[in-house]
Amino acid sequence: MIPPSLSRLPGPMSASSHASANRPPPFQVDPDIRTAWTPPSAIYHDPAYFAHQKDTVFARSWHLVGDVRDLKTTGSVKPFTLLEGCLDEPLFLIRDEDQTLHCLSNVCTHRGNILVEGEGHLPGTSIQCRYHGRRFGMDGCFLSMSGFEEAESFPSPEDDLPVAELETWGPFVFCALDPAMPFDDWIAPVRERVDWMALEALQFDAAGSHDYLVDANWALYCENYLEGLHIPFVHRNTLGGTLDRDAYTTTPFEYASLQLGVGTSGEHTFDLPGDHPDAGTDVAAYYFWLFPNLMLNFYPWGLSVNIVRPLGPTRTKVSFRYFVADETKREEGAGAGLDRVELEDEEIVEQVQRGVGSRLYDRGRYSPSGEVGTHHFHRLLASFMFGDAPPQTT
What we know:
Layout: H1 47-56, E1 63-67, E2 76-82, E3 89-95, E4 101-105, E5 120-121, E6 126-128, E7 135-137, E8 142-144, E9 165-169, E10 172-176, H2 183-194, E11 203-214, H3 218-225, H4 231-234, E12 249-252, E13 256-262, E14 283-290, E15 294-299, E16 302-312, E17 315-324, H5 338-356, H6 372-386
Antiparallel strand pairs: 1-10, 2-3, 2-5, 3-4, 6-7, 7-8, 9-10, 11-17, 12-13, 13-14, 14-15, 15-16, 16-17
Helix pairs in contact: 3-5
């Protein structure tokens, strides 16, 4: 598969054009993994690279932001901050009179006040700013405001609330500020493998879900996830005994990659339909990474979601969210003991963060057989940040 020309990708958002004045030195990653070198170590700790990524990477990507089951009825509203600590964009989800779900800016178009301050239901059929009384419909359109009777060319489209792009898949809600790719292209590899599952049956496990603070750059965390080389060393007593290393494969897609975890003899695996692409394979886990910072991990018991939230150049919050379909399989196979696996990953990634800060280290090489996913991630990162030729996948 060959990704579209980079001319399809929009540039950084106009409101953030000042970032280009402080653009850090660009880097490239050779498309041939056999000769390629990794990006410079500065991307993991230099604030200029982190600032540049806000508009070139995260503002142009899709993000998992909610569950449609939390917004069932007209007037249901849920405010949130998109990537707090990075984008810090105030938004809210709302369901209107036609049962349509919207994702809107949570900033009043008059003087910038935050509109929706709590999750729940609107008291009426409109949103009113408590600062000066400006009113908006549940679709974000301006309705009224006193004191503007003599204003010319008022109201205009700029008085409506800006709309963020919104899509749903299964029970999940995704939004994007200025997406560089259609949602259907982004989610396609996941749909191909798991749409046979009863996604609506997945139930959120609030008690089991946790946030982890990691003293490392967000990209290091993703890199660790994207390769299986470390499993027999870092996860020797956890994943190392449940997955067949010789059958472990990584397949890159346009904006994603799939690591296929094949179970060792006797391990719990999926009962796949006969026409499934992996029928006949003892799949213990599907590990999906979607650019730039989302992991969807499917096990026979359900789904583990990892959202990697950058907080700074060397600080990351990883949100683990569990959605369970079969509790009886929760502690079996590759999907068991995930909190312990996470702590093992945290420890090694924080150690690498200290290492890449060394004055004696700059770049490394890739394992052609074991770091296909990491190489693909780095090529995507370079493409989004600096407009290099888009990566190709086979």
